[in-house]
Amino acid sequence: MEIGKQEGKSLSPYCLVLPFPLQGHVNPMLQFSKRLNYKGITRITIAITKFFLKNAKDFPAASFSVETISDGFDDGGVEKVSPQEYYNRCWKSGSDTLTELLEKLRSSGSGVDCLIYDPFFPWALDVAKKFGLTAVMFFTQSNSVNNIYFHAYKGELKLPLSEPEIRIPGGLPVMKPGDFPSFIGEYESDPERTEMMLKQFRNVENVDWIFVNTFYELEQELLKDEQFSRSSRRELIMVRAIGPTIPSWYLDKRLPDDKSYGLNAFKPITEPCINWLNKQQNKSVIYVSFGSFAQPGVEQMKELALALKMTKMNFLWVVRASEETKLPKNYIDDVSEKGLIVTWCHQLDVLAHEAIGCFLTHCGWNSTLEALSSGAPMVGLPQWSDQSTNAKFTEDVWKMGVRAQKDENGIVRRDEIIRCVSYVMEGEIGEEIGRSAIKWKKLARDAVDEGGSSDRNIEEFVSALVRF
Ligand code: UDX
């Protein structure tokens, strides 16, 4: 019998999914919801902030219903206040409106059983427990990054970082200050933001399940016996990997998917990219993208532009419309023989193309997982947040690429970029990275496929929810 269905009566547990309102956080939770749905959770509602819904045209909630909460900024204006002010207002407004939403759903006869929330909204756990719900923390960043924040939260990682090399117990490699997420490494310049990141764990002992968008094989040194909390019922709450949360049509092809890409912050221009890539030789093109958010400075953009012009490889570069003014004058025309510049594309289609030889990336976690799952070697130019840690692991642990080094002014110069691109695309090292790429591509796909490590974790969760 299909899970959740009995004598025509729907017994499916009802899950409310609450992502943080940024593309890089919404998409992983949407993809995860699709997998829950496939496993038999037929009642899923996505709760998103009013401002986000207003601005995300064609919000791709698939078969899910959508409800809104308020973070206190329904008409925008987040950029005009300090992170602390956003956080405080969001805490109050988010708690109140999530409470109202849960009450509304309860009084309409559709009581929610389970809240799956992004720990960037730590107050959501308090609300879930007030309603007696099963509470699931869903981390959209890597487990190494969560682990670092957790050690800092517990005071085991002393801030500001003061040693040139730092050892943290429990599976992390030796780290240099520059390998840490910027909110840890740059604690002194923005302690308030660091405190906000650490508050993800403030009430973790009350949570019932902890999911991370990663896969066991990728971060097993940490995941082996990791728990961020022991619940008030004294059970161990293991951290479970459920990713990579990349659309099924791309990875395992199991879900009856509509080839959706998830939410796209910008309008993709993909056909010209594919037509152009079709004319290039296998593994000859550098694909460059810094995701939806990062804003490299003018000087950095100039160095990158010149490096791409000087290298012997052809390139496809995503320069968001808001960043175009940072390109050197007449650059697009100057490089038209060897480079294609677009404002956005469907990255998965590009990464899957056989012409791609390497991915020059800011190492956002979604991009990193997509590159690993596509077998695309990476050159990392991390900008902020979790990206330095992702770049460190890409180079030292997963052997999937190299991190470009900054000079004393914090700029990665053109020579260094050219060196890194050759390093991953050519010679013996290039071949070694190529072998890692084949390995990770397979392991990522196996993890979500029938009986894979992530698939089993999702299965177990669904069974427990149905039993409950
Ligand atoms: C943010 C943070 O920067 C990142 O570090 C964090 O881990 C998640 O949230 P973002 O900067 O957008 O996200 O980077 P990333 O996580 O890599 O996500 C970018 C997404 O945009 C990817 O899914 C990628 O496929 C998509 N993309 C990018 C496109 O679809 N088209 C493009 O042209 C470029």
Polypeptide structure, described:
The chain has helices spanning 23-38, 50-55, 83-107, 123-130, 143-153, 182-185, 191-198, 220-223, 271-278, 298-310, 331-334, 347-351, 365-374, 387-397, 414-425, 427-448, 453-467, and strands at 5-6, 9-10, 14-18, 43-49, 65-69, 114-117, 134-139, 209-212, 227-230, 236-241, 285-289, 314-318, 339-342, 356-361, 378-380, 401-403. It has 468 residues and is an alpha/beta fold. It has 2 domains: 14-260 and 448-467, Glycogen Phosphorylase B (Rossmann fold, 3-Layer(aba) Sandwich), CATH 3.40.50.2000; 271-445, Glycogen Phosphorylase B (Rossmann fold, 3-Layer(aba) Sandwich), CATH 3.40.50.2000. The strands form 3 sheets. The protein has an 8-stranded mixed β-sheet. β4, α2 and β5 form a beta-alpha-beta unit. The longest helix has 25 residues, at 83-107. The two termini are 18 Å apart. The structure holds uridine-5'-diphosphate-xylopyranose (UDX).
Q: For the CA atoms, what is the radius of gyration?
A: 22 Å
The CATH class of the largest domain is identified as: Alpha Beta
Here the CATH topology of the largest domain equals Rossmann fold
Q: Whole-Å distance between the termini?
A: 18 Å
